[in-house]
Amino acid sequence: MARTPTLLDAYGRPVRKAELTQPQARAGITGIRQVWPGTVASGLTPPRLATILRNADDGDVYDYAVLAEEMEERDPHYASVLGTRKRAVSGVEPVVKPATEDAADVRIADAVREHIAEHDGFADLVEDCLDALGKGFAVIEIDWRTEARGWYPDGFEPVHQRFLRWDRETARELRLLDDTAPVEGIPLAPYKFVAHIPRLKTGHPARGGLARLVAFSWMCKSYTLKDWMAFAETYGMPLRLGRYGPGASPDDVEKLFTAVANIGSDAAAVLPDSMRIDFEQVAGTQSEAVFENLARFIDEQVSKAVLGQTMTSDDGSSQAQAKVHNEVRHDIAAADARAVTGTLNRDLVRAFVDLNFGPQARYPKLHIAIEEPEDVDTLMKHTTAAVQAGLRVKASEVRRRLRYSDPDDDDEIMGAPAVPPPDLNRERNNDPTDDLDEIEAEMIAEWEPVMDETLQPIIDAIARAETLEDVVPILDDLDPLPAARLIDMLVKGGFKARALGDVRDD
Question: I want to staple 60 with a disulfide (CB 3.0 to 4.6 A). Which of 55, 117, 438, 479 is the partner?
């Protein structure tokens, strides 16, 4: 009875270690996976484009994958914005977090960091995964190396999308075209491939690639550029008119036409006396603006589709605005990073850990953090103003925002020495205003009992009156009010204020 494999991938498929060190998706001169793909973009028409997209919807992505690659090769703007979006993620240093703080989990995380995150080909691996942005999916073959100490990825080889297709039953599984299965393809071997399928839009992944979104615009732009070049070839050149007499024969007319056609390049012609060539100057037109405006408009729409915005230095915006937007919208770059790290954790990190340490309850996480760009000039301006207004700010926090490290004691320091916090007690002693505030506070603290003693006879007299008319006679009969304490308090306060030089005898 056959022994059941114990090592399963993330989808529950058994892993065959003997196949991991053998290349499985290499292209060749012959066979179903040929190196040279031919061309699809040349002579592309709307009906042909519609057929290519319908075939991709049915799972046959060969022509669509070739077209998507040619679009990047033939359009500088599309290649630039797509490359910018890829490098917004591939250029970020990854970090690896252990599953827990246990020593065993930390050791596993250290191994992942050493052999994957710090691998020389990691940045290229991320960029190859992000090739799925244009084509809807990307598959990379892992070149495993095994030795006595364990399993390690030697390199990563991208598999061209034209060698893949979607299964017919569910349209969810990518299959590799093979000589044994040239139509349906074979399943991708577990732990042998990294398959990145980003969720660029809701619906089938085959319809989510950016190349599909911009394909029609790209085709229209290619028509525009051809017409523009044809227009530029003759724009501003005088119109050459050949004139012949009534007795000219058809052969003479043909010779005249040839001379007119070639005079632009030969700058010479031989004609009989009965024929002549006139040069008519064509008035300037605005036709060139039509081609330029259309091409520029299409580029702007492609930028929106790929980068999420058009705020770049080539559309008239200022350099400062372009830096604030940082070329790729932050939410798009963060979503790309989140998607690609999810794929790598599932197809590469888990495979590495299982092959070297066995299946785990929890696995370390490889993470690519996309920090939102910050306007440093504005930050420093506002921080300086706040500090000058009295706000106390941690220097370490400002350094962290500016990405400066804390200096050591023996480091050479740039900038002014730190200003010690103000001594509030010392300042209060030197400020006469603070002394007056203190006098005021003391008088207010004693004011209520002093006034109660002075006003109490008046309150008692009013309480004895039965009507409002009785109040006045009762107040007239009162003895002098006890104001000794009130007078004493006012005298002391006045004396203290006079000692400070803040009382005038007006």
Answer: 55
